[in-house]
Amino acid sequence: MRIEEEYKKSGYFWLPGKEESKIPGILSIDNGGKIKLEIIGHFNDGPSLLSNDGLSRIIGHVEKDGLVTLDNCFYITKNISLGGISKSTVHVNTVFGGAAWGKEETVTFNTFSFSVDCLDEWVGISGIDVSTDWDARAATINYYPPEEKVFSLDNGMKLEICFAYTLPVFPNITEAKITQRTYFRLSSEELLNLDDFTTTAFKITNLMCFAIGEIVSLKNVSATSRELQRGVDNKQYSVPISIYYQSIPFSEKMPKKDRRSMLFNFAVITTSAQQVLNNWLNAYEYLYPALNLYFSTKTGAQKYLEGKFLALAQGLETYHRRTSSETLMEPKSFEAVVEKILCACPEEHVGWLQGRLMHGNEINLGKRLKRIIEPFKKHLGTSAERNKMLKKIVDTRNYLTHYNEDLKDTAAKEGDLWGLCAKMESIFNLHFLKVIGFTEEEIDWVVKNSFPLKQKLQGANM
Questions:
Q1: Which of 17, 160, 171, 397 is the most exposed place for a label (fewest CB within 10 A)?
Q2: Own/partner pairs for 136-141, CB < 8 Å, 24+ apart?
Q3: Cβ(122)–Cβ(149) under 8 Å?
Q4: Do 62 and 27 form a contact (C-beta atoms < 8 A)?
Q5: 406-439 burial, b for 16+ CB within 10 Å, e for fewer?
Q6: Tell me: the pLDDT tens digits for 207-229?
Q7: Is there a contact between 436 and 279 (Cβ–Cβ < 8 Å)?
Q8: What are the distances in angstroms from CA 234 to CA 195, 227, 230?
């Protein structure tokens, strides 16, 4: 989670039901969502002095934000001083700003709003209209809030693309400022646990990472519940609850992307956005391991180029396993062959041989890669270039996995290894486009118009 402004606030904190035992402290949230509470003393006394009992939830009242609920807490350090001042540090998993929940009370919501880096640029919809008359030295600025985009998700939620805005404050004779911010809102008719929303938000954020072509981070998270209402002018309104937690993916560096440097933007999928969203969310049911391996190479989880290469190679292999049931021979035929082999095997070696034959009907990495590139071979060079690339990937994977000296000279090194990684990334990109519903013609258009993808394909053929 991206924290754009420093969050370090003083306040008083107590355990649910023990408001009379308040402790002063400082609540801090780092960029990335890591949350820490520093307190004077500790929350336990008497026989439970050295225990963490009852610390899973903490209530507080902090400057500017008012009531906060700190969830899933535990001590990092617990200092006990005899007669002096002691400080303790508590790790906090989640902060809910704006309300207090009891010790056993379940936290549920109906809506969950969030934004991600570069979302304004990706959506590309603005209600700001500026016209200039240079001859008259005059300018006119109009603002009409854009219409929200609403999509029904297969998991029962709705996803909306919404637009928050601020208008000029009057009277003001020196400046007139209009701002607009795009954000997502997930909504449900039923009250849902926070995890239900954060899981869907995580998948949507990864879709944005893929579409934008950069690691983007979740930010500006808030939620509402029909159970939390506030009366204003005889009307009831849902209380907005700000939420902080350590979400992934996250990159400390704020990305900067214009629409032309993205893989694709919202305008490309305007007429099919609902299907694209559902295709991506549903893909996690069977492609999660492959998706996880791919994104691990984008988030910096792989610190070295060799690790990135192995993750991509394993990811492509896993992708094919999850999307194809191809085997060397028909399962019944293979079972018959295995039975004959085992019958001829000395009894003392049967267990060993069974282990060796367990995966004997699976096709090897080379064949899996050949099947994977088949739909997109026109984008991956000539037949000779493709065969050379496939052999290089297989030899390099085998060498980096087993460090067999016989493969050392045929494995890719340095610049060639970078090129293979670019190649495998581009293959993933092409398949992900197919997964979310792009037609062959639409994929051809992306290849032609997306500079980052074109660069990966060209770089890989060097």
A1: 171
A2: 141/176, 141/178
A3: no
A4: yes
A5: ebeeebbeeeebbbbbbbbbbbbbbbbbbbbebe
A6: 999 999 999 999 999 999 998 88
A7: yes
A8: 33, 17, 10
